[in-house]
C-alpha cells in the first residue's frame, strides 16, 4: 500500500530531506499535501515536482503569488487555517511535523486528533506540551515516531526490549561549533560562527540551539515524553564526531548504540517506513575511515542551557513551555543582533525565574503560558540591549 504523506514545513531542512527520501520510493510514498511559510518559489517548484492535492503557504498574498506561478490543479490555502487543513487532510496517513518552533504545536495536535501517524521532527511541541500531547496521542491511539536523530537512535535501540529493563538513556551531543571556545571567546562570537555547525546542516534556529546546547536540553525533555524515562535516567555525553546518535543502557550493563553518518535522511527514512526499512540516500558508514570515536562531559559553566532544561523538566508543569518560548525569543534576538550569544541562556533563566510553574491540562493552557513567556522575553531583551 502506498503511504500518503502530508508535510508541515516542506521548504525547511527536514521538509526538503523528507521529499528527497519519499521521491526515492514512488511505489511506497506519495506526498499529498504540504505546508510552508513564505518561500513561494520553492513551494511552486515542490508542487510541480510532487503534484500534491493541497498546499498551504504563510499568507493570502503568498497564496495569490503561488496561484499565478502554477497551472497545476492544486488547492491553495494559507495561514494557520491552511496549516491545519494540511495537518488534518483526509487523504494523508502520516504527517511529518517539521515546522520550526512552538508554531508546530497546534497543527501537530490537530493531526493527532485527526488520527494521523506522526513523524515528529518538531521537538518544541513535546517540550512545550509533553503531557498534553502524549495524553492526546494515547487517547487517539496515534503513534509518534521520532525524526530527531537522537530519538530515532533510542527508538531503534529500544526495539525488541522491555522498557522496565532500561537503566538509562545516553543522548549524544556534538558539542556544536563552540565546543572548544573559552568563556571569554564565547562573549564575542558572531551569528555566522554560530550558524556554522561542524557536522549537521540544519535550519537556523536549531543550529543556534546546538551552539548553546539548548538543543540537547530540548532533546532531554523530548526523550522523557517519548520514552517515559525519568529525568535522572537521561544522561548527555559530548561525542564530537556525531556517529553514535544515542544509546540505551540496560539493567544488565549492556549498552545498545545506533550509528550512522550524520545525515537526517536516515532518521527520516526510518520514520516514514517504520517498521520496515528503505534506502535513504545516506552515505555508507566507513568504519575504517573513522579514526576514532571520542567522548567528553558537558561543560555546564560555558553551556548553562542544558541545566536549565533539566531544571524545567524536573519542576515540570508549565516551566518547560516557558523555557522553550523564552529560548525562541532569545535566539531570534541573537539572530537579529539584539542579544549577545552568552545572553541567550541568561534571558531564558530570567524568564523562568519570574514564572510560577503550574500544571498544564490543555493546548490552550500551553499557548497562554507561551504568550506570557514571549512577552516577558521580549521585554527583558530590551533591557539587555539598552
Ligand atoms: P527550517 O527553519 O529549515 O524549516 C522550517 C520550516 O517550517 C520551513 O518550511 C518554514 O517555511 C516552515 N514554517 C515556519 N513557521 C511556519 C508557520 N507558522 N506556518 C507554516 N510553516 C512554517 O527548520 P528545520 O531545521 O527543518 O527544523 C524543523 C524542526 O525539526 C525544528 O523543530 C527542529 O528542531 C527539528 N529538527 C531539525 C533537524 C535538522 O536536521 N534540521 C534535526 C532534528 C530536529
Ligand atoms: Mg537532534
Structural class: alpha/beta
Q: How many strands appear in the DSSP assignment?
A: 11
Low-confidence stretches: none
Number of helices: 16
Q: Helix content range of the residues, please?
A: 40-55%
What hetero molecules are in the model? nicotinamide-adenine-dinucleotide, magnesium ion
Largest sheet: 7 strands, parallel
Widest sheet: strand order? 4-3-2-1-5-6-7
**What letter string, H or E per element, gives the SSE order?**
EHEHEHEHEHEHEHEHHHHEEEHHHHH
The overall number of domains is: 3
Distance between the termini: 59 Å
Overall 3D shape: globular
Roughly how many Å is the radius of gyration?
20 Å
Q: Report the mean per-residue pLDDT as an integer.
A: 97
Binned strand content: 5-15%
Amino acid at each position: 500500500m502506498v503511504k500518503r504523506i502530508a508535510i508541515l514545513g516542506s521548504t525547511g531542512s527536514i521538509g526538503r530531506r523528507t521529499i528527497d527520501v519519499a521521491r526515492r520510493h514512488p511505489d511506497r510514498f506519495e506526498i499529498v499535501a504540504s505546508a510552508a511559510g513564505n518561500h513561494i518559489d520553492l513551494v511552486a517548484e515542490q508542487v510541480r515536482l510532487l503534484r500534491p492535492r493541497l498546499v498551504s503557504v504563510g499568507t493570502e498574498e503568498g497564496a495569490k503569488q503561488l496561484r499565478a506561478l502554477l497551472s497545476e490543479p492544486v488547492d491553495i490555502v494559507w495561514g494557520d487555517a491552511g496549516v491545519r487543513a494540511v495537518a488534518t487532510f483526509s487523504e494523508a496517513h502520516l504527517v511529518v511535523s517539521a515546522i520550526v518552533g512552538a508554531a508546530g504545536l497546534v497543527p501537530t495536535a490537530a493531526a493527532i486528533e485527526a488520527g494521523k501517524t506522526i513523524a515528529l521532527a518538531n521537538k518544541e511541541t513535546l517540550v512545550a506540551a509533553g503531557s498534553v500531547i502524549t495524553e492526546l496521542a494515547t487517547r487517539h491511539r496515534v503513534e509518534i515516531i521520532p525524526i530527531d536523530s537522537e530519538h530515532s537512535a533510542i527508538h531503534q535501540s529500544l526495539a525488541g526490549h522491555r522498557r522496565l529493563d532500561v537503566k538509562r538513556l545516553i543522548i549524544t551531543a556534538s558539542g556544536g561549533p563552540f565546543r572548544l571556545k573559552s568563556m571569554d571567546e564565547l562573549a564575542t562570537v558572531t551569528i555566522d560562527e554560530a550558524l556554522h555547525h561542524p557536522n549537521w546542516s540544519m535550519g537556523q534556529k536549531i543550529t543556534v540551539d546546538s551552539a548553546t546546547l539548548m538543543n540537547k536540553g530540548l532533546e532531554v525533555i523530548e526523550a522523557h515524553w517519548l520514552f517515559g524515562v525519568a529525568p535522572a535516567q537521561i544522561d548527555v555525553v559530548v561525542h564530537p564526531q556525531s556517529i553514535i546518535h544515542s544509546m540505551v543502557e540496560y539493567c544488565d550493563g549492556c549498552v545498545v548504540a545506533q550509528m550512522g553518518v550524520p545525515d537526517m535522511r536516515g532518521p527520516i527514512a526510518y520514520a516514514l517506513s517504520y517498521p520496515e526499512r528503505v534506502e535513504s540516500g545516506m552515505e555508507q558508514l566507513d568504519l575504517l575511515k573513522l579514526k576514532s570515536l571520542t567522548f567528553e562531559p558537558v561543560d555546564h559553566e560555558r553551556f548553562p542551557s542544558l541545566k536549565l532544561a533539566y531544571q524545567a523538566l524536573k519542576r515540570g508543569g508549565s516551566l518547560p513551555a516557558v523555557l522553550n518560548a523564552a529560548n525562541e525569543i532569545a535566539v531570534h534576538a541573537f539572530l537579529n543582533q539584539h542579544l549577545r550569544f552568552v545572553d541567550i541562556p541568561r534571558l531564558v533563566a530570567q524568564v523562568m525565574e519570574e514564572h510560577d510553574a503550574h500544571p498544564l491540562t490543555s493546548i490552550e493552557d500551553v499557548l497562554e503560558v507561551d504568550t506570557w513567556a514571549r512577552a516577558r522575553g521580549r521585554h527583558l531583551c530590551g533591557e539587555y540591549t539598552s
